[in-house]
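thought: fold this chain, then report.
action: predict
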Amino acid sequence: MFLLLYLLSYLTVVSAGFHSLFALATYIVGDTQFPEFSVVLMLDDVQILYYDSATWKAVFRSHRDSKYYDEEQRDAGAVFNDMYNSMKDRAFFHNNHLNHTDGANAVHVHQRLAGCELLNSDKPGLLQTWDAFDGQNVEEFTFDIEKHDIKMKKPWMIMWSQFEHLKVKLMYENVYHPVCIKTLRRYLEMEKNNVMRKVKPRVRLVKKMLTDSHGLKISCLATGFYPRHINLTLFRDGQFVDDNQITGGEILPNGDGTYQMRKSLVISEEELHEGHEYNCTMKHLNLDNKLDIIFDVAESDPGSFSQSVVFGVLVFICLAALIITALIIWRKRHSAGQGSVSQGEYSPTPSSVQDEYLNIRPLE
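observation:
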């Protein structure tokens, strides 16, 4: 499983400039709660359909009302049933020849990653398949339509005659490759707003003081980008930081269909005082130029951090003292003002009483 998922990830990365259609098929030997055979079909990194031996029908992620629905069901049934029979035979073969001695009730997994690619010029590319049994790579096929040639890597115990080799070549050339390219173009048209979109990455720099070692952990996070291919690199004084010093680096999915990548580096207390310059560079298909961001590590130096904290506390104490002094002066003045008013009582003059009376006298 991990081997084939790695291959799928690799294909998506190197295929950043074109498009691909790949099926990840799984055949299980033994009794489990899962279907004996299942397939997930991916256009670039978008799931198109799911197919398994429980119903022998393709379940589409979308476009169920497509005018090609019946044709797609027929093509999927033909290709995936043929894949099922092939993988079933291969699983039986590998189970008997790879020295498995774990009993009749053991569970084994045979997986196949198979698909084709479409180049930038809308020109069909390679058709490729990889097979793995219990995580061990066992077979590989590559068909080149331009050279009309097929290259195979098989275990030494699989011996094909010239006739069998020609039969496989004709199947790849006249059935598998044309059907794959036709399906790829069709789904690419239906999903173009999704797989052809370009979203710029958002960048965040994160710094975290390490209280146990008095060091600093810096992280460069790029998120919200599509397609998934991105080049994120950390530098120290203009030189690449060794991969064994960096943590992270995996491309992870976001919930909205975009991706994120984080790379982190721990800087020791000694390195902080040495005054190195650290920066993060990023390249993405949707960025016109390389993005270069410099970490302001000096502000995170433990010594300067302590001095800034002390200075901040002193400023706070001074401000608090000024505010308290101002409140005391204001209270004294306020009390003095109230005392002067209470010593003299308000006595309206006769004229004021007369004016008040005239104001409330009813009109005649």
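thought: worth noting. The chain has two domains: 2-195, 202-302.
final: tokens above.
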